[in-house]
Amino acid sequence: MADIIQLLPDHVANQIAAGEVVQRPASVVKELLENAVDAQATSIKLIVKEAGKTLIQVIDDGKGMSTTDARLSFERHATSKIRTADDLFQLNTKGFRGEALASIAAIAHVELKTKQEGEEVGTSIIIEGSEIVEQEVVVAPKGTSIAVKNLFFNIPARRNFLKSNTVELRHIIDEFHRVTLAHPNIAFAMYHNGSESFQLPESNYRQRIVNIFGNRTNEKLVPVEEDTEVLKISGFVGKPEYAKKSRGEQFFFVNDRFIKSAYLNHAIASAFEGLLKDGAHASYFLNLQVNPQTIDINIHPTKTEIKFDDEHTLYAILRSSVKHSLGQFNIAPVLDFERDANLDTPYGFKNKGANTPTIEVDRSFNPFQEEKETRTKPQVSYKKETAGSWEGLYVGLESKSTKTQQDFSEVHFESDEQTASMFTNENEVEQQQSTYQLNNKYIISKVKSGMLLIDQHRAHQRVLYEDFLKNLTVKEAMSQQLLFPLQLHFSSQEITIINQVKEDLEHTGFMFASIHTDSIEITGVPVSVPESEVSIILEQLISDVENEVPDSNFSATDLLAKSMSKSLAIKTGQSLSLQEQEHLVNKLFACKEPNVSPTNRPTFVTMTMDELDRKFL
Questions:
Q1: What's the number of domains the chain is made of?
Q2: What is the CATH number of the domain that holds 130?
Q3: Mean pLDDT over all residues of the chain?
Q4: pLDDT of 391
Q5: Residue 513, in any domain of the structure
Q6: Residue 371 burial (CB < 10 Å; 0-12/13-18/19+)?
Q7: CA 89 – CA 102 distance, rounded (Å)
Q8: Residues 43, 190: one domain?
Q9: Minimal CA–CA distance to 91: which of 283, 251, 229, 294?
Q10: pLDDT given for residue 294 in this prediction
């Protein structure tokens, strides 16, 4: 039988490796930025066009590469970071696997220009689908510039799986945030479609966070510092009142490398226990420094997960450090064991004993004994009309004149006398109450065939969704003016999303006075929206736009209606009056699709009499 196992060609192997390394344009951004950081650059510039589908370019002023290194950098398993297997446990750099550039070059057009310091000329290499098309000597500044064009040009199926530009750009910005937060000592800049998105100068860690997420972030941060033999923690956590519904501002860095860890995230959530509202997530920007020999980085293709030798110790230290910081800055309630000098015993009374108070009781007192009027006070003269015994308590209650009796006999009650019937009409009971609320979550309504169990939250979502969709389509929504303009602060990325949906928001009744780089000013809101809910609605909307996975039929109007209905719908646990229950039921069955919520979940279930009868068999 003929042999069937053969070695893959290099270009095929590179494309297979690219499936792990390059999942989307953001993966290319991550690899190129990390290479620039490893090159000891002090200034890094990221240029993106069409959310990375057309161009991703990274320019740095690092060490650069020689002609030989520039050529070898695109070979598989070529790296300058490790020499032996033991080096995997002494890693202090980012990329070390040596497949990133080879994988990128296999599925894109790559142009590399690099020059080392002290050299007169540099090297330029052009690669198309793993094939080197051109290599020449060029004049270039110190450092490296690498441009990745037409990503997935030779794999159309992978290109078709990419999401919209909005979603892909969000992933690129996320990777940009992760690298820039880990290295505040490096200046970064980002440009998208020719416009500047971020300009981050070299700064300290706190200022870097403020530069990325807006000026108002500064007042939200609580510093966390802890230095032990096992772990060194530095960074900040957000105050509980500024917690968000999304997890967008949660960053763990281990030895300046961004990681994801559900275990350590649970430690933060445990430290914030009792301080956050339901569904809210705390923000944190924490740097963890550990011995490289106690972690294993090489367990995940994208190197975003790390294996720790002793996770339980790290969990305990991290949790206690965050709780200590929250208590130290009066964020969380703590027990105060400090002595107040004002409460100390005065020096003169230090050795004195307490005097026992004396209580005198008249043991001969008898309330039923006749009083003897032996106590007379010449200073006060009065006439005592009461009797001398306890029967005197009732003296004076008799009427003094017949006129008084006549006055009382003429008193009339304002309310008319009502007599209830022994038997109540069944139809009247049905008219009085046709719905019931169960556990402040479900509404029970009676129908001919049995009964309906209605989920009040989903039902109200459906009602609001169709109302908002109608207003957005017809563009005739009513707006109520605010007495004082409402100013809300957001990050530059969130402001960009608000600008995208601003026109649709205005059709629902929102009125914007101005939109700045880090804040917006609202002068009008929809009639059904309370002022206190505006920030919650916009945060929910931004989260939905960021996390939505749109297809070719994606509608911003539909997403906006879903997001607003989700924010404003009555919540589970809210008690409703009888009129509110009936109104919600009537509005639900007046909808075009009352059976499902905007997220395609059932709003009610029907239980027939036959099903109820079978329950008792």
A1: 3
A2: 3.30.565.10
A3: 80
A4: 58
A5: yes
A6: middle
A7: 24
A8: yes
A9: 294
A10: 80
Is 490 a member of any domain? yes
Q: Indicate whether 138 and 54 sit together in one domain.
A: yes
| Tokens (6 digits) for 150 | 């037409």
Distance CA 95, CA 257 (A): 10
Domain that holds residue 284: 213-328
CATH number at residue 280: 3.30.230.10
Same domain, 34 and 86: yes
What pTM was computed for the model? 0.67
Whether 178 and 251 map to the same domain: the answer is no
Cα-based distances in Å from 391 to 364, 369, 413, 487: 21, 11, 33, 75
| Whether residue 464 is found in the same domain as residue 580 | yes
Q: Among 126, 140, 32, 116, which Cα is nearest to 67's? A: 116
Residue-level pLDDT at 147: 93
Tell me how far apart the alpha carbons of residues 31 and 99 are, in angstroms, rounded to a whole number.
Answer: 10
8 A C-beta contact, residue 564 and residue 463: no
Instruction: Return the pLDDT at 456.
Output: 92
Dihedral of alpha carbons 303, 309, 312, 315, sign:
negative
The C-alpha angle 223, 226, 231, rounded to 5 degrees, equals 130
- 481 and 571 housed in the same domain: yes
Which residues pair with residue 440 across a beta bridge?
none
| Ramachandran angles phi, psi of 567, nearest 5° | -75, -35
* Positions of the chain with pLDDT lower than 50, given as ranges: 96, 374, 376-377, 380-382, 384, 386-387, 401-402, 404, 424, 429-430, 549-554
Are the C-beta atoms of 161 and 171 separated by less than 8 Å? no
Is residue 220 within 8 A of residue 283, CB to CB? The reply is yes
557 domain-assigned: yes
Alpha-carbon distance of 330 to 332, in angstroms, equals 6
Angle at 69 between CA 65 and CA 75, to 5 degrees: 135
At residue 553, the pLDDT reads 42
Nearby residues of 482 by Cβ (< 8 Å), 6 or more positions away: 522, 523, 524, 525, 531
Same domain, 32 and 93: yes
Q: Is residue 430 part of a domain?
A: no
Same domain, yes or no: 173 and 251: no
Q: Which of 295, 313, 328 is the last residue of a domain?
A: 328
CA–CA distance, 522 with 490 (Å, rounded to integer): 13
Phi first, then psi, for residue 510 (nearest 5°) are: -75, 145
